[in-house]
Amino acid sequence: MKRFLKNVAFFLLVLVVVSLALTGLNRMFLLSADLRKIKPDKNILVLGDSHSKYAVNDSIFFKSANFAQDADSYFYSYYKLKYFHEANPQIDSVYISFSRHSLHKSIEKRWLLSPEHLATRIDLYLPLLEWSDLWFLLRQMPSEILSGFFTQMKSPFMLASRGGKVFGGFEYLDQNNLKEEINSLRLGELGEEYQSFEISELETGYLDRIISYCERNNLELVLLGTPIHRSLHDHCQALSDFRESNYPTIPFLDYRTLDMKDDCFGDLVHLSPMGAVSFSKLLQLKSQLNP
Amino acid sequence: MLFNSIDFAVFLPIVFAIYWVIGAKNVRYQNLLIVISSYVFYGWWDWRFLSLIAFSTLVDFSIGRLLERNKEHRKRKMLLGVSVLVNLGFLGFFKYYNFFLDNFISAFSFFGYQLHQNSLEIVLPVGISFYTFQTLSYTIDVYRKELDATHDIVAFSAYVSFFPQLVAGPIERASQLLPQFSNRRYFDYNDAVLGLRQMLWGFFKKMVVADNCARFANEIFNNSQDFNGSALVLGSLFFAFQIYGDFSGYSDIAIGTARLFGIKLMRNFAFPYFSRDMAEFWRRWHISLSTWFRDYLYIPLGGSRGGTSMKIRNTFIIFIISGFWHGANWTFIAWGALNALFFLPLMLAKKNRINMNIVAFETNVPSLKEFLSILLTFALTLLAWIFFRADDLTHAFQYLNGVFSPSFFQVPNFDMNWKFFQTIFFISVLVVTEWFYRTHEFPFDFQNDRFKVSRPIRFLVYVILVIVIVVYKGGQQEFIYFQF
Questions:
Q1: Which of B60, B62, B172, B341 lies at a CB distance of 3.0 to 4.6 Å from B135, suitable for a disulfide?
Q2: Model pTM greater than 0.95?
Q3: Which pLDDT belongs to residue A190?
């Protein structure tokens, strides 16, 4: 029995060593990679979910570098902020998506505590996680996190093939569901986040960490409300009230009710390529007027 | 509790440690621990159905004792009848009630009578088909006086509920498993190591091969109308490896886990896709079920004795019931009947026992005839799997219609992305590895290895296999045979 236990323990130890070595190597690779570096003339970091990703074209709003990604919780935005800011001292401002969507309770399960979603992120983020967050995720999704120690070996290949794009970035929205969504809305089929305004404490917790990080590093944090379709404008007040009472000192670039034609929307909350161009030009113009 | 879950990864070492530390002193402690841990294992899924296992255990234990005491043939027969009735009654109610009801109503409506009776919302208890057959084997063996009735209720409970094979087999014979619970088990290093290796190979088959194949098999079968003939063949191929990896993987994990506790379970799969004819396939696929039906149904019916009509009748009965055992759907019956059709010519020509040895035993490379025989047999099994996997008979015939169409000769209209090639690669790894180890019970059976692999290389193989399992595990989690 002793021999058996000794051999099993040795085998497990080898696995642990391999997984830690992979994590260490991966971390070294991630932290030293050129993909961290953004152009020196870009001093605004755009983060958040698909709202920012499809709205801010960083080659038009050229002072910005957009790393927003579909279904990105504030949890991942926090790590991206640290990752890019540490390597790019010229960054002085951070624009981050701020919407009912990004704060809603239902997002917690879908974007943070979902094993399927975690599987799309863990390979890249595991070596960057702080101990407290690693422990938090390990308690929530042990199987996925333990797998992540090995699956992260894929991330250097992902980085080699896609570069910084693995962290997100501007893309033109290549689908148009606006008519369908308007019809659904007429039939009373509202998305979960518009049925109630139930706030996720987890999400706001990570937003608070982003705020603290920005304060510590003298970064200006700007909450960004990207345009939404006029049929949802009636639902805008609750978020404004929430911001007013919880983040009164954080600037809120609120373009949600910006008057835009239907052609500018890919769906009710995402801008179409045409909308993205107009909106990015507007941001660029504003920044020129108020440098 | 699923074998491929974190829960099991925590559960197994705890039970293993208690079993060999506390339980090692006394066989009753060992058995008691097996019973408790097995009930926890099963109750993890749904504790309410533990009462079914407990009831079935009590009934068959009592009937065994009564059979031992009664010498009168009529009374013994009656007691056996009670056991069969109780066990098959449970099975019939939970598994087949709605099937018979729906078909009964359809039959009446065909003749113009409208019956109104709603189907019941019945949850099928996991593993019911397996443990009812196992307990039945006990009473039948005692009835036949091939086995003495046990007086130890704890040992008998351990036999019925032994967690590694409780929910999906192998379906053990009382004569083989029960005596193992009567004697104290001693830790055997070689057996435990062998067990871990077999588990590792089982996890690879289930989590890497089966779960990755499932993605493509599901996509093609669920949207079969959108695919051309060659893509549909791919769908059937993926399903063939999905079900093999899933079920034989489960069996390997079960047998390997049992070895850790000093229990030897019967072999359930013997590389069936290397079979040279359908008779050989059925000697190598789900062996514990095939031999159960052979011993308790086929032979009592007369087996292959008697005239041609008798042989045909018995063959159809055994295959159709075997198909129906899998589920309450006409597709399983058709699958069984089709296999009977494949098997029958071999039996009638007395060629069903010509391939009893291991293919290319001496040479490692099959002859052209052997190779073509393996391909033909595999093609027939692919054809039969279509019925097994289809939603209903209409779907199965539509699928077949799609396969046997001119589009069979076109390039598959299926997205052959890197995941597809990755899955094909893992299937190839499975096939090649099993081919080289086909003379063993399972690959990596290094103790009896003819390749003489050195220790560091073996160690490296295990590490790589664990990493491959973790990194390339597919999405589907549950074992297919749980639904049976």
A1: B60
A2: no
A3: 67
